[in-house]
Structure formats: C-alpha cells, structure tokens
C-alpha cells in the first residue's frame, strides 16, 4: 500500500517547492556526502560509530552532530522512521524523532544551506503523527551547527496546498 503513495520529497517536487533556487548548490558529491553524514550520525546515535572508518570529508559535520548531542542532549526516540499519513496520502522518512527539553519533535538533518521548503517538509512529517510534534532542522556545517525550530502555523496550510497541487499535476500528466 505505501509503495503506491508519493513520498514527501516527491510531493514537494511535484508542487514546485523543491528544485530551482533550492538546488542551486546541489551536486552529486554533495549528495553523496550528505548520505554519508546521515549514515554516520545514525551509527553515532546507536553508539556504534567507528570514527576511523569515516571519509575525512564527513568528519567535520559528524563532529558537529556530536557537539549538538553533547550540548542539547536530545533523547533520540527513532532514527530514519517511516511515517504514513493515510488521510492525506503520503509517506515520509523522518531523520530523527527526538525529545528536546521535554518536547517531542521531528528533526531533519541538513547541510548548512537553508531553504524555505524545509519548514514545509517538516510540517508534512509532523502531520503524519497522531499527536502534536515540534519541528526542527539541524543544519550541520564543517565548523558549527544550527538548530532551527519552525513554528509558523501556516506551514501546514502550504503543505496541504502542495499536496493538492501535486495531485492535480499528477492527474493531468504534468
């Protein structure tokens, strides 16, 4: 059943929110580094990271993730958790479900480049849970990290509009 549902990324792309300006810095090398950072941080969360196995290009960002863990001290509740929103017909993969200072949240890891659609992506993830969820992006740079909480309630309105636009475009072969 979930194989037939579009992913959050597919919805955002089909609605025209991802791409263009949001991808002006996108490279295959950057994609591969992001994948490696995600994998390494998952091993770090499982306390099973062999630092000597890391490509040197990802070490600074993984160190920033470690710094985030040390400073913020989140409870990691789930890693790469699949979520389904059957009511709105989509699936997603949440990088982390966490508890930060007693508040349950979805957390998405990103490179240092921010984009407006990140808040909409998190809104879609959060709406797949049967309870309110806070929304955070963790931007990992080589020399620092930035934890950004998204609180704009209109993000969900935009997310629903993106679902509608993506569905319309799909029905019309656009």
What secondary-structure arrangement, pairings included, does this model have?
Layout: H1 8-14, H2 28-45, H3 59-72, E1 75-85, E2 90-100, E3 103-110, H4 117-126, E4 134-140, E5 145-150, H5 154-171
Parallel strand pairs: 3-4
Antiparallel strand pairs: 1-2, 2-3, 4-5
Helix pairs in contact: 1-5, 2-3, 4-5
Task: Produce a short descriptive summary.
With 174 residues, the chain is α+β, with helices and mostly antiparallel strands. It is built from 5 helices and 5 strands. It starts with 7 loop residues before the first helix and ends with a helix.
If you had to describe this structure to a student in words, what would you say it looks like?
The protein has a single domain (2-171), classed as Lambda Exonuclease, Chain A (Alpha-Beta Complex). It has 5 helices and 5 strands, in the order αααβββαββα. The protein has helices spanning 8-14, 28-45, 59-72, 117-126, 154-171; strands at 75-85, 90-100, 103-110, 134-140, 145-150. The two termini are 24 Å apart. The model has no long low-confidence stretch (mean pLDDT 92).
């Amino acid at each position: 059943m979930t194989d037939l549902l579009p992913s959050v990324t597919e919805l955002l792309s089909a609605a025209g929110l991802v791409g263009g300006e949001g991808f002006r810095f996108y490279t295959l090398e950057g994609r591969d580094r992001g994948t490696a950072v995600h994998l390494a941080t998952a091993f770090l969360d499982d306390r099973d990271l062999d630092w000597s196995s890391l490509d040197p290009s990802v070490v600074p960002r993984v160190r920033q993730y470690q710094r985030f863990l040390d400073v913020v001290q989140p409870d990691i509740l789930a890693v790469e958790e699949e979520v389904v929103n059957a009511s709105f017909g989509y699936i997603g993969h949440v990088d982390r479900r966490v508890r930060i200072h007693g508040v349950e949240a979805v957390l998405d890891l990103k490179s240092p480049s921010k984009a407006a659609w990140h808040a909409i992506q998190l809104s879609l993830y959060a709406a797949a849970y049967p309870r309110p969820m806070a929304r955070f992006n963790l931007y990992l740079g080589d020399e620092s990290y930035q934890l950004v909480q998204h609180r704009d309630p209109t993000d969900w309105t935009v997310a629903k509009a993106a679902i509608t636009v993506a569905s319309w475009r799909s029905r019309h072969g656009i």
